[in-house]
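Appendix B. One record, verbatim.
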Amino acid sequence: QVQLVESGGGLVQAGGSLRVSCSASGRAFSRYAMGWFRQAPGKEREFVAAISWSGGNTYYGHSVKGRFTISRDNAKNTVSLQMNSLKPEDTAVYYCAAESDPPRGYHRGRSESEFGSWGQGTQVTVSS
């Protein structure tokens, strides 16, 4: 498994941009598909995006497609989420996640159960 730590959250105005990142420990990081989820107050955790082991395949939730971009740097053991054209409804705690063991390297689905390692989350707040 990998250990994950998110960073980069904060407060931004609607229409603005923000980048959140996730640093992973462990030599096997490049074997794992990675994902981002978010959870707003009073709501269930929602799939945001996922990326394959090589970065060659990406997947997005319907509400963020065309606005958010997921990327990874296997040399630095990091995965990032660039968020553009932010809306107040994007306000949430954003979580980085690694797929469950054993890693396949490709996105399996949008369910939380497909991911076995989670970061502590970083708050993103979009003001109107």
